[in-house]
Amino acid sequence: MAADDRESAATEARAARETATRLGATPLLQRLDALIRRGRLAQAAADRSLALTARGQDVLRLLALGRSNRQIGEELYITGKTASVHVSNILAKLGAASRTEAVAVACRKGLVSREETVG
């Protein structure tokens, strides 16, 4: 698939996902997420300037689950301080002022699904 086609498909997928979220259509949302993953559109849908590392994505996933830096560190076998540095980098890349805002931005950008978050 050409880069323009992939970007167009990612934009359409993101719009469909936002509509499903707004409507509260959980089964449709789950199906869209599966299709996005299968088509590898999630990465194209994400802002190119984000470029989260694999570890950053792991930390973001745990952040979305409401984990503290200490808990993130324990789960990823890193120190709480290292987890804190990863969280700070994520906040900067997402342009967020808080952990909660970072998760909200990540959800909007398709970096984490609603099912992967607390609450």
UniProtKB/TrEMBL annotation:
<feature type="domain" description="HTH luxR-type">
    <location>
        <begin position="45"/>
        <end position="110"/>
    </location>
</feature>
<dbReference type="Pfam" id="PF00196">
    <property type="entry name" value="GerE"/>
</dbReference>
<dbReference type="InterPro" id="IPR036388">
    <property type="entry name" value="WH-like_DNA-bd_sf"/>
</dbReference>
<protein>
    <recommendedName>
        <fullName>HTH luxR-type domain-containing protein</fullName>
    </recommendedName>
</protein>
<dbReference type="GO" id="GO:0003677">
    <property type="term" value="F:DNA binding"/>
</dbReference>
<dbReference type="InterPro" id="IPR016032">
    <property type="entry name" value="Sig_transdc_resp-reg_C-effctor"/>
</dbReference>
<keyword id="KW-0805">Transcription regulation</keyword>
<dbReference type="GO" id="GO:0006355">
    <property type="term" value="P:regulation of DNA-templated transcription"/>
</dbReference>
<keyword id="KW-0804">Transcription</keyword>
<dbReference type="InterPro" id="IPR000792">
    <property type="entry name" value="Tscrpt_reg_LuxR_C"/>
</dbReference>
<keyword id="KW-0238">DNA-binding</keyword>
